[in-house]
Amino acid sequence: MEIKIHTHHVELGVKRTAYIEEKFEKLSHLAARIGDESSEIKVELEHEEARKTEDAYRCVATLFVPQDTLRAEARNASLETAVDDVLEKLRSQIERYKDKVGHISQRHA
């Protein structure tokens, strides 16, 4: 599974890039059990001048899976926390997707 990271007004150092890749690599192992090697995760990171400082960082993750697209978004004061929030949201969506695909394949078997 390929992980693509796009940034907007965010400077990612080596540590932050490694942190993000490590976190999404764990998610890709969970998603790899979906059964498609061509799945892709697109991560968009953005820093905005927001009215609220707790909304300064925005993380949007899009996971392209067979016949569907899973997407999650989170805002937080720190980039790492926004990434963690997105991962939790995507993890639950992956579980629901796997259940849905499992039920469909059982009906057609």
Envelope shape: elongated
Q: How many domain modules?
A: 1
| Low-confidence blocks of residues | none
CATH homologous superfamily classification:
Ribosome hibernation promotion factor-like
Q: Based on helices, strands and strand pairing, what is the structural class? A: alpha+beta
Provide the CATH topology: Double Stranded RNA Binding Domain
Sketch the topology as an H/E string, one letter per element: EHEEEH
Strand element count: 4
Task: Classify the helix fraction into a percent range.
Answer: 40-55%
Please state the second-level CATH architecture: 2-Layer Sandwich
Mean pLDDT across the residues is 84
| C-alpha Rg (nearest Å) | 15 Å
Beta-strand fraction estimate: 25-35%
Number of helices: 2
Instruction: Quickly name the level 1 CATH class.
Output: Alpha Beta
- Largest β-sheet summary: 4 strands, mixed
Across the major sheet, the strand order is 1-2-3-4
Distance between the termini: 28 Å
Protein architecture, described:
The mean pLDDT is 84. The chain has a 4-stranded mixed sheet with strand order 1-2-3-4. The protein is α+β, with helices and mostly antiparallel strands and 109 residues long. The longest helix is centred in the last third of the chain and has 29 residues, at 79-107. α1 (14-32) runs parallel beside α2 (79-107). The protein is built from 2 helices and 4 strands; from the N terminus they run βαβββα. The chain has a single domain (2-107), classed as Double Stranded RNA Binding Domain.
